[in-house]
Queue: 2 jobs
Job 1
Amino acid sequence: MSATFLTGIARTTEPRVMLRRFLALDAVVTGGNGLAYAVASGPIGRLLGVDDRLLLGLGVFLTVFGLAVGALAARQEPPAFAVKVIVDMNVVWAVLSIASLAIWLNPSTAGAVWIPMQALVVGGFAALQWAALRAGART
């Protein structure tokens, strides 16, 4: 990823600010997704063709994860190790989302579209966070 690309989407040239913004965006999207899964696991499960108990568990996990990412984004200088853990967890989530389609889920058409799309978004968060972390290490 080029510095120009990162600067454009983060609207800053300061790597630390970029990183915090990408973490905050991840926290909002992940936390919102988690809350939706937790609060409306039945209807969403029916729409996606995924077990509502699975969605409830994922919703609780994602809500807590979103809060943790948000707490990290709120720090003036997020610790590199903690950011690497978030990046790794995002990569694992993206890979497991795709693998779940091939291995054990049998989603509806909406689920077959939603699951890879959210995996792509989460993978994008990981890439942006990693690039901003590396940019900060070079300055």
Job 2
Amino acid sequence: MAVDPDRTVLQKLALQSPGEPFVMLNLLRFATDGRASYEEYSRRAAAFLRQYGGELLYVGDGNTALVAEEGQAWDAVLLVRYPSREAFSRMVADPGYREVSRLRSRALTEAVLQPTTPWTRRAG
């Protein structure tokens, strides 16, 4: 299963409203003993997140899924706000971040990274 986005997807993301803020939904499934590696990744990646204007909004453990197919429960959920797709793209291209992200890759057996944009209120 994939745990890291490929270049083609990252290039496509960068072209979609590059200056608009967004929130990235992270759904994570840890490898055996992967939580410790992911926690180390989180500690080291925090500096890059700050450098590129990102903000961790929420992190929590998954619990019993109320509506899900077999295998759709996740070990952890994170919400991370980025000031723009351009800032996110610069962060993941940063050589220092790429080195740190190896910890993340080793920690996970499966992941979903889903960029989200807020719904806008309709007048009336």
